[in-house]
Amino acid sequence: MSDHAFLFTQKDWLGEGTIQLSNVEDELKFYTRWNMDGADAGGEISAVQEVQIQGISDVMLNQFMLRSVTSNGFSLELENASLGLITGKGIVKDDLIAWEYRDPEMGFDGFEFYERQKDGSYILRAEYATPDQTRTIIQGRIWQKGEK
Length: 148
What we know:
The protein is mainly beta. It has one domain (12-144): Lipocalin (Beta Barrel). The protein has strands at 12-21, 28-39, 45-53, 59-67, 73-80, 84-93, 96-103, 108-116, 122-129, 135-144. The chain has a ten-stranded antiparallel beta barrel with strand order 1-2-3-4-5-6-7-8-9-10. The model has no long low-confidence stretch (mean pLDDT 91).
């Protein structure tokens, strides 16, 4: 398993940053909360991510399931109301957790990078492309709940 606290231990994480959509001029502020369940008896890890975008009343829920977890990688499933179920592959390195999605049939692809900082927080960057050619760029930071 990994020595990363994010994703791989039963802890809650908070975060904030900006989202930029290719079809909107302004950057939008977002806030996030990750609730990690920790590994079950089969080694699968489930997590729920809530995302609140400034100015939008609905909270987006992303459900993650990590499977086939090793010290250097994993497979994952992401499920949410707008995309349905998407699968991806992830890597784990000393100070980095990253994953990518590629679904040519749906026309969706994207990646997320979480780079561990000296204080235990993570800088995140994500980018997605959807079938309508909308690109989403996300930048921010997450930290363990109770720390900042």
